[in-house]
Design goal:
The complex is a heterodimer. A 3-stranded antiparallel sheet of chain A has the order 1-2-3, covered by helices on one side. Chain A has 1 helix and 3 strands. Chain A has one domain. Chain A has one helix at 38-47, and strands at residues 2-7, 20-25, 28-32. In chain B, a hairpin with a 2-residue loop joins strand 4 and strand 5 (103-109). The chains are: A alpha+beta, B alpha/beta.
Amino acid sequence: MKVTLLGTGPPINPNRFQSSALIEIGSDLLLFDVGGVLSTSCWCREST
Amino acid sequence: MSRLGPIFITHHHYDHINDLYPVILSTATLGRVDTLHIYGPGGTQQIVDALLNGVYAPDIRFRIEENREVLRRTQGGHQRREAISDVAVHEIGSGVAAVGGGWRVMADYVRHGDFPDAPDFDWRCLGYRIEAQGEVITISGDTVPCPGVIGLARDADLLVQCCMWSESALTNPTVQILTESVLPTTTQAGQIAAEAGVKRLVLTHLSASINEAGALANVRQHYQGKVLLGSDLLVIE
């Protein structure tokens, strides 16, 4: 399994996205919580 | 991103569901063809219904009509915008939450707020244990030390544990009260990791006041295993 921490901040922390973690198991992508700016971080992740 | 899902919600604080609609929308507009499954505590269905049938109903209708207009003018193929609303919500509690190809997700209730004077307030929070490929990863959700998170993290290879404050913040009386039943300190995160016997601990949900050296020192009061201070886009294999 591969874990990507998409967001590691609480409600208010300008230096961190809000809570979210992606777990990859084979071709399955399990997402745990969907804190703010998650979409952006997914895009960042795919483009890096 | 179109392959993203299922989604597991730990609880309904806004900083854990802010991007629920953007993810539902983005997966669909980027080509999702399958139903998006969303798991969460009681009340999750109401939130998804409010997003899809209330708050963002005009946004969804706009995209469907826009798509029809493009199709009418081009007679060409286009993405299936109706997939936006192709969502299945599963309200879950303690036990097996979901099973997929070679993986299983278990859920249990964790402690993130006690309201003895508000018996009508049905507030439930979950943590998750993911079992696959001979490994175990635990997502604590927001919780102070409690039997739920200890059980979910028992002997896990990795615990992704929320914590909000360093030990030094306990000089603030409000923080002291909140660490009893809402969110833990880095020291309490170490307690959870030690009691559960996890192999590796990653700290998340971190306030701006937490620094790496202090956090590690706090954790080490109880836990001697591998510790990482989480950061956005950190990959752990």
